[in-house]
Amino acid sequence: MEKVLTRNVGIEGSRTIQVYRKRGGYETLAKALRMDPDAIIEEVKASGLRGRGGAGFPAGVKWSFMPKEPAPERPNYLVCNADESEPGTFKDRVIIENDPHLLLEGCLCSAFAMRASRVFIYIRGEYVLGARVLERAIAEAREAGFVGEDILGSGWSCDIVVHRGGGAYICGEETALMTSIEGRRGNPRLKPPFPAQFGVYGHPTTINNVETLSCVPFIIERGASWFASIGTDERNTGPKLYGVSGHVKNPGVFELPMGTELMEIIEEHAGGMLREGKALKAVIPGGSSTPVLRADECRGLRMDFDSVAKAGSMLGSAAIIVMDETTDMVAVMERIAHFYAHESCGQCTPCREGTGWIEKILHRIRRGGGTPEDLDLLDQVAANMQGVTICPLADAAAMPCRSFLEKFRDEFEHYVRHGRSPVAAG
Amino acid sequence: MFDEQFEKRADEILARYPRRESAVMPLLHLVQEREGYVPLAAERWVAEKTGVSPAHVHGVVTFYTMFRTERHGRYVLHFCTTVSCMLRGVDHLLAHAKEKLGIEVGETTPDGLFTILTVECLGSCGTAPVVQVNDDYYEDMDVARLDALLDALAAGKEPPFPPGPGPRRVLVEGD
Predict the structure, then answer these.
(1) Is this complex scored with an ipTM above 0.90?
(2) Which of A97, A103, A95 is nearest to A78 (CA)?
């Protein structure tokens, strides 16, 4: 496939506005500013673009919830979610660090469509380099008249602010992210009201992922039908960034059509299994919160929203974590459990207590102190966390736990009986 | 408590936001950049600047793991121990660092040079394992690269290689 989102990656000087413009950059913004904002929203709807952050909600539909005539005292905001923190996910970083102006152009086109006068780019605090690259790019874009007052003489004004996080995974959740922009602890809040009605400072707000916004200039430039022609079907469209990590020879981010087969991604693009002669055991398809797949479930699986859902997991952030036969699945699950226990904000009891208990029980099993009853207890604790909290972090912890238990129960049982893993490396 | 130039930078940050309270985190980052941590007195300074209570600022400082309330070593080594780095041998790398420096996670070497911390996923999974040294990501790390980096820093020299990805390894250490 022709490179779209990553077309400037690896080009010398790709971070600079000179190189970006030489390669056609910001021409789409000029085109967008001559369009009717609603026509842009319709185009994005027709393209089938779904949110690349993990939830897969249709972007154009989300945009249509924003007020068409914002009151002066309640301006519309666009927030770019660059908090990329789901374990295994490192795709947005590629765009931010290599092609910051693509993201800015995407933000500006989208903000114009939504009549937003301000964009906040919420970037995870650890991406210090990314924040610096974006700050410089914004300064260049401001100098060139693409950011600020009366952009390209259109009468529309828009400012972009980079806001750095502080190392809290939960701030990738959109309501926690908005709370964090407001200068507070990143506690999620209940929906409804949804951000389009009550967002940052109570103003109408839309939150989109970096990759989602980076698709927008191409949709405007080449048309919805071009975008929709890439992918599995009309519900799963466009180019997609897949991040592959774990036991493969050539881990990295690969831009491929939505719905590329998982085994093709692993074997052809990621170079196949890391260690010669070691077979594939399991894959986490969309970041550590998504249910794990056994090797046999990976064959023939297309990596798009609906196909992965049909296989009982989620495309999520398309963060593919590959594990070979030497992997101690109980140890991996313990590590995942630790992550969610560490990152729970503590507001809701089922999450605060549940993530802690899952970690403790797994720790006990790993140290050889587990009992057969612990396995049922684990599943029960996880089941009681699902769907009962303000935000989905509890579900994000429960889903991998239940799927690891279901699909690799023999390994958990071996641990309980013998106090150690059945695999050699364990 | 800060000089004029620092106050000016703080005011520039405040001017970016429609509401002052949004500047709480950026100002805390600014303080930590300069001081290496967030002293209690600086929390009060942030509170005054942003119009929120000192308790509010303290709540923010303690919620976000990146803000530190005590001084760390000159070089803070953040080892990512989450799944992708685990699969590529970070446990072995961390054990080596602890032994080499003679400290545990959370401790600082007696000369004040190095602090070892473990962190959750840094978003460098394709170039795992990653060690973030202060702000910089050192990727595709192994024992040899870590040794070379730590030895150079300990000798007051420039790092022997730039931050970012390293050569591709085919073997996972520690198996």
Answers:
(1) yes
(2) A103
